[in-house]
Amino acid sequence: MNIINIISPLIVTIMLGYLVAKQNYLNKQHLEGLSKLTFSIIIPIFLFQKMASANISEHIASSHFGAFYFPLLTIYGITCLLHYHFHHKAQSTNKKNIKSAAVFSLASSYSNTVIVGLPVLLAAIGEQVIGLVFLIITFHSALLFTLTSFLAAMQTNTGQKGGGFSQINWQQLIKQTLNNPLVLSITLGLLVNISPLNLPVIVEQSLVLLGKPAITLALFLLGASLTYYKIKPQRRFITLAVVIKLITFPALVWLCADKVFALNQQVTMILVILSASPTGVNAYLIAKNEQSQQATTASIVVMTTCLSVITIPFWLWWLS
What pTM was estimated for this model as a whole? Predict the structure, then answer.
């Protein structure tokens, strides 16, 4: 198995977007139009179709979910607290920002499970991994996107000066969260999935066709966005996120799967590789949608994608 063959097309697409924007072949106005099409229409269609068609009917032990989602939520919570309490000091400001911390936590914990994790596992183990992989990742985006959007909306509802839970307009908060096009598309897809109704074939095929360029466009726009961001002020937090995403998170999953739940080697490998996958580009979509931490998130996606060429083979060796 050659990890480089899986990762390199992602890096090439990001680089192409960067070069196109850097040479001004597409100016900022062009990219904003393409961005609106991608993030408001193409990506939501892609997420809806994937969620609506995912196989979540098979039985799976709760220990499988526990071994993956307990470390996931632990990492999310720790990084959120770290960013919330220290980021404003590093930036020499007096404002603690829940939204900023939530988006950073998403970038530190959200895995590129479909584009990187699944192909790696197919090559390493075989097609028998597909059922378990999709059962594990079915709620991956829904959980993290909803949680991040909820915390971001909490920032808006409490105001920049804080306030407290009693001052939150919970109805407005829930409305803002569900109105997020990414969260909304996943939620609707899940409702279709669990309903007894099936999408008409022509609708299903149309959704698949419309969703095909989603990841490519997202990666291209991610690369283009790097020309407009200054990375230097965020280097420490980017480095922290990269270490947490590629090393700390999968190590915690391994401990839970192997030592706490005593799962077999194959299941443990599946869970660890899913957690060790680089940050998914959809984390950048959330950052862009929330207008927070775009530069940091874009850099984390790029850095984790490049470095995963080294870290994923390490985890495969460790688990073999």
Answer: 0.76
